Amino acid sequence: MPITQSDVLYTAAATAENGRDGRVATDDGRLDVVVNPPKEMGGSGAGTNPEQLFAAGYSACFQGALGVVARQEGVDVSGSTVTAKVGIGRNEDGFGIIVEISANIPGVSAEAGRELVEKAHQVCPYSKATRGNITVTLV
After folding, report:
1. pTM attached to this predicted model
2. Does position 5 have pLDDT exceeding 90, yes or no?
3. In CATH terms, is domain 1-48 a member of 1.10.260.40?
């Protein structure tokens, strides 16, 4: 269910200059980075790129969701990590992205870990935002 403006607790704002080959910065100055297309896409690869920024945000958000679900289930996931791999490629509309989420949860069986990851995927705001729009594979 979508939230309304009155439900918003925090809003992040970032401004890009020159698109994928320029600079992006947040309004509070905490993030200010040069962005360049990766070499694989004909760019210099000198800076970061939107896919790396999306992967960073998605992995952090998913890790948070994993922690929430684990606490609800009474499972200790300390020491766990979540990696998001974001791929970009051509599709019928021009370009599209695909995501692979993998979690390493020490001390938790593979089956229990899979269940936690699937539950985290249901509550993670990034997962909710992308559901039905892009392919997200859970590993």
Report:
1. 0.94
2. yes
3. no
